[in-house]
Write a structure and sequence with these properties.
The chain is mainly α. The chain contains five helices and two strands. About 15% of the residues are buried. It holds the Pfam family HTH_20. It comes from Actinoallomurus bryophytorum.
């Protein structure tokens, strides 16, 4: 079975993990090194590095070089693309929900009419 790795799939796969989402939330406050990102987690730095690599692969973060440090930087363009996808599909489902609600209202009104004529 072929593994599909389009950009959106990579983003949503990366966002599926709570540790990676927490890392992104931390980076929303400012750039940080892997050591700084690892501080709040009860896991090894290597484990955090693996999460960072997944986020880099999804291009949700990048690394810069400042002297000896390589701080991680949040890249919001991919998040914006994911938000856009969700917004488009939310509108489709909202429209479908509205049509279903209208249809159910018509059915309920028809049932009331039937009940009143049988009395």
């Amino acid at each position: 079975m072929a593994v599909v790795e389009d950009d959106l799939t990579l983003v949503f796969s990366a966002l599926a993990d709570p540790t990676r989402r927490a890392i992104l939330e931390r980076l929303a406050q400012g750039d940080a090194t892997v050591n700084e990102l690892a501080e709040p987690f009860a896991m090894t730095q290597q484990a955090v590095s693996k999460h960072v690599k997944v986020l880099e692969h999804a291009r949700l973060i990048s690394r810069t070089r400042t002297a000896q440090a390589r701080p991680c930087v949040l890249e919001t363009v991919r998040l914006d693309a994911a938000v856009g996808w969700i917004a488009r599909h939310r509108q489709v489902w909202s429209d479908r929900h509205d049509r279903l609600e209208e249809h159910l209202a018509v059915l309920r009104a028809g049932r009331r009419d039937d009940e009143e004529t049988t009395r």
